[in-house]
Design a protein that fits this description.
The chain is 19% helix and 40% strand. It is built from six helices and 18 strands. The chain has an 18-stranded mixed β-sheet that branches. It is globular.
């Protein structure tokens, strides 16, 4: 068994979001996969196996299995295309969230087709802003999707300056919390993603969070294609496109593209 570490949503090693990818001959026991993910210690470990012309795909953090993980899906596609020379024009993955696809689109970019997770505006849960270290006058609105909370703040500097109280933030019964704003400079959207309740204090670059951020900001900015930057210490760039299903009130799918590079291989 080989464990390959790939940095996703970046074009250079040791940036973006690292994911471990394990290619198996057949499905494995969930407890074993969870134990291996804990041993590896990255935010996500992806497990792949052949499945009738498709690929079975599951993702584990060091503590829990998750239903959808964008950066580890991108890393899995990169691993099949680059390390195993898989020749399909479109890779099809069977996951807990249904079928996902990955398509090479040139210049080292791979595009994922993922289910959208639109949000509804809600009152901020008690203590959430304090757990994020945010003053109320810097918050535009709070929303909730299927798995995450989304907090829009006044500007990109607020996003970059957040210092959360992770133990407190981990008490909320959500997968994680995105904090986002209109970007400055070369990007349309800037965000950070915190998931201490899922075993990851801050995720470096979160593809699945953009299943919420994409529809949200497409509506706010009146644009269907966005260039997004996740402002973690490692940083990462994502192209987000909601044009495939643009009928109101919500887009059903989101296309998220990124690059990936090898980091290391563990034997």
């Amino acid at each position: 068994m080989r464990v390959t570490q790939i940095d996703a949503f970046t074009d250079r090693p040791f940036s973006g979001n690292p994911a471990a990818v394990v290619l198996l001959d057949e499905p494995a026991d969930a407890d074993w996969m969870q134990a291996l993910a804990a041993e590896v210690g990255l935010s996500e470990t992806a497990f792949l196996h052949p499945l009738d012309g498709r690929w079975g795909l599951r993702w584990f953090t060091p503590t829990v299995e998750v239903a959808l993980c964008g950066h580890a899906a991108l890393a899995s596609a990169y691993h099949l295309l680059v390390d195993h020379a898989v020749s399909e024009q479109v890779l099809r993955f069977e996951t807990a969230r249904g079928e996902l696809t990955a398509t090479p689109v040139g210049d080292g970019w791979i595009e994922l087709d993922l289910p959208a997770d639109p949000v509804t505006v809600v009152a901020a849960p008690d203590g959430l802003l304090e757990a994020l270290g945010l003053a109320a006058d810097r918050v535009v609105e709070v929303s909730q999707g299927r798995t995450d909370l989304l907090v829009e703040v006044a500007d990109a500097s607020v996003v970059r300056g957040i210092v959360p109280d992770f133990p407190r933030l981990g008490t909320y019964r959500v997968r994680g919390v995105s904090v986002s704003a209109r970007a400055d400079g070369d990007y349309d959207v800037v965000s950070r993603f915190f998931a201490p309740g899922s075993g990851v204090n801050e995720d470096p670059v979160t593809g699945s969070a953009h299943c919420t951020l994409g529809p949200y900001w497409a509506t706010r900015l009146g644009r269907e294609q966005l260039l997004a930057y996740q402002a973690s210490a490692r940083g990462g760039v994502l192209r987000v496109d909601v044009s495939a299903n643009s009928a109101p009130p919500w887009r059903a799918r989101v296309r998220i593209a990124g690059q990936a590079v090898h980091a290391l291989q563990r034997v």
